[in-house]
Amino acid sequence: MAIFSDGFESGDFTAWTSTEGTPAIVPSPVHHGTYAAQMNASGDYLEKEIAEQTILYYRCYVRFNNLQANNNSNRFDILDVLTASEEIACVEAFKNKWVLEYHTGAGWFSIDWVSAPVINTWYCVELKIVISATVGEFTVYIDGVSRMSATGLDSNNFGNAIRVFLAYKNNDEPLTVTFDCVVVDSSYIGPEAAGVTVKKGSNLSARMTEMLNSKMLFSIADRFPKLVPRRF
User: Fold this and answer.
1) How many CB atoms within 10 Å of residue 64?
2) pTM of the full predicted structure?
């Protein structure tokens, strides 16, 4: 069973710990099911608190109605993972490319995959974080393919509850971004099976049923004022 999943089929955000701004439930576009979540204002986000994890996978589907201009220096957060005291890593869209930002004991680092997202297209975005006593591991999968990966350790990440965010941050341009099929788990999740409809009472495993039926994707200070500013 997944640690957390929400396909927004409840028609509200009651599954989340808190919301900020004006995220909305919409009937279209959706990746799967009847509803999705949509954000279009700077500072919009959804937050979910979960128990401490040493291996965490965080996945969602995201769709851009429009994209940032190439001269826009603002990052657009998609997935953020934070402990009680600091941000660990986030996946962003920046100047029309995918970016992984991650925190180690030496500070903040970023790597990117130069492949521009296409508007009105659903992308499966999954962030893997491994926090161990010797090394931290960060990997981003786009549509089930590993595109960015890094290692590094930050001992401050230990012993804290985890917060995961779906987030919108853009001050310069109006964007509309839709999220769906959110899952947090301790093992790889991957894309949904294409064209599969799971009916109640089917013989699929509980894990597969949950992933398909529930519709099994953020940064500090300027994005979330209560948190400590990060440095670039």
Assistant:
1) 21
2) 0.79
